[in-house]
Amino acid sequence: MEQLSNTEFGSYYQNYIEKASNYNSILEGLESTQNELLEFYNALPESKLTYQYEVGKWTPKDILLHLIDSERIFAYRALRIARNDKTSLPGFEENDYVPQANANMRDLSDLLEEFISVRVSTLTLFKSFSEEQLLRIGTASSYPVSVRAIGYITIGHALHHKQIIEERYL
């Protein structure tokens, strides 16, 4: 991983950055976690896909669609900052998205297809960035963030949620 400065992301994202630290590059991490998540979800028992370990908690399908939605938002932020847009980008309330997304009504294969599509798009976007663009810093969710930090946040966010499923759902 490139040596990120703590000025390139808000402290809220430290956990995600740490989880992504095993990867030498953003592209390697995005490709690897795509494969890891596909294998992981395909191996989950059908009975666990809509399981809640506690009332009101998300199911693994909810989590997968949350990863998809979040990645779209992260990629949008990266695009705007890379293009030198100085607009402060708002946060989003993830807990408002999940009940509206109806993930549990969808087939796993459909969700995984959407995940692959979004991940391929994210990979293509990050491949297009120059070193200068990757180092650009903007503001998202009231915190400074670099384009490259957004890449590692995307990777770490997926790994974080995979770990939660492993620890609390299986």
UniProtKB/TrEMBL annotation:
Pfam families to which the protein is assigned, alphabetical: DinB_2
InterPro entries reported for this sequence: DinB-like (IPR024775), DinB/YfiT-like (IPR034660)
Domain of life assignment: Bacteria
Protein name: DinB superfamily protein
Coiled coil start-end: none
Residues covered by the DinB-like domain: 30-165
